[in-house]
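pipeline/complex-builder :: batch 7 item 3
reading input block
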Amino acid sequence: MSPVTKIDQIETMILDIPTIRGHVLSMATMRVQTAVLVRVTFSDGSEGIGEGTTIGGLSYGAESPESIRSAIDTYIAPVLLGRDGDDVNGALQLVDRLVKGNRIARTAVEIALWDGLGKRLGVPVAQLFGGAVHDRLPVAWTLASGNSETDIAEAREMIETRRHNVFKLKIGKRTVREDVAHVARIKQAVGDTASVRVDINTAWSLQEARWGLKGLQEVGCELVEQPVPARSRRAMAELAQGYEIAVMADEALNGPEDALEVANARAADVFAVKVAQSGGLKRAAEVVAIGQAAGLGLYGGTMLETGLGTAAALQLFATVETLHWGTEFFGPLLLTEDILANPIVYRDFCVEIPTGPGIGATLDPDKIDFFRRDGGRTRKTVAGA
Ligand SMILES: O=C(O)C[C@H]1C=CC(=O)O1
Ligand SMILES: [Mn+2]
C-alpha cells in the first residue's frame, strides 16, 4: 500500500489588488479587491491552492478578509495538519463540526484540498465532481461605474468586442425612480443586443421593491437580484410571485439549508449559486441540486474572486447541466492585473473552463509578491511545530 499523503503545512496571505475603475455597489464602492489565498503543502511535495474572498470589507457579509485569514490560521489549519490529504470529505466533516459559519474561510481551504487531490490524480477538479459537460459558459459583466453614460460606453465596447452581451447593473444607492431611469437609459442604448439585469444588494424595503419591480419590468429589465434583505423571505416570495420579472436570491443563500428554505417558501425564481457563500464547492453543488429539484433557474454567481477562485468555480459549474441564466465569472477582468500565470480566457461572450489538473490555475509568483499585504509575510501552520 502506498503511504498516506499527509497535510503538512497551510499558509495564508492577503492580497490587495486595485480594480480597473470604481465599482459602485449599494453598500460600498470598491477601488481595491482583497483576496485571501491559501496554499496547502502535502507530504509528497504536492500543493493545492485556494481562495476566500468577500466584497467591501464587512459591508457585504459577516466575514472580512482579516476574519477569513484568522479563522483559517487559528481554527481550521491546526485541526487539518497531519490528516490524510486525499480524504477531502473527512476534512470537511471535521471542519463542519469544529467551525460554525465562516463559510468563506472554509471555502478557501476546501478549494485547496480539491486542487491538491486533482493535481495528485492528474485530473481537473470537474472530474472529481462527475466530469465537465461544458468547455465554456456564458459570462455577464457588471456595469457599476456610478454613471449612466460611462456604463453605456462600457456596454457598447463589451458588445462590439464580443466579450459580454449580458449586463448586471448595480443599483439601490439612489432613489427607486432615479435607478429605474438609469436602467431604462442603458436598456434603450443596448436594445435587443443585450440582456439587462439588476442587483440591489438588499437595499430596498418591500414597498420600494414593489415600485422598483413594476418600473424595471416595464423598461425591459429581465431579472432583479436580492432586492430586499436576506432574511426577508416573505417579501422575496411576494415579489417573486407578484411580478413577471425574475427574482434571484443571492445574499439569502448561505448554503444548502438556506437553499431548501428559500425553495420551500418560493422566495425566488432563480438561485445565484456562489461557491464562497455556500461554504465551498461541495456545498455549492448541494445548493445547485436543491435548485434543480425545486425547478428553479440557476446562475453561477461570484464574489469577484481573482482568477484562482474563478477557476475553482468554473470547475464546478462546468458539471452543471443547465445554467438557465448563465454566469458572472468575470472577477479577474475587474482587476488591474491577473495573478495567474495562465489567465482565464474570455471570448465570444463566454468564459472558458481551465483544463489543467486540479482547478487549472497556476499563480504568477511576481504578482503575488507585488500585491501581498504585510510586505509579503505569510502565516504558516506547520505539522509537528
Ligand atoms: O452579486 C453580488 O452581489 C456581488 C458581485 C457579483 C458581481 C458584482 O459585480 O458584484
Ligand atoms: Mn448579488
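note: The radius of gyration is 20 Å.
queue -> next item
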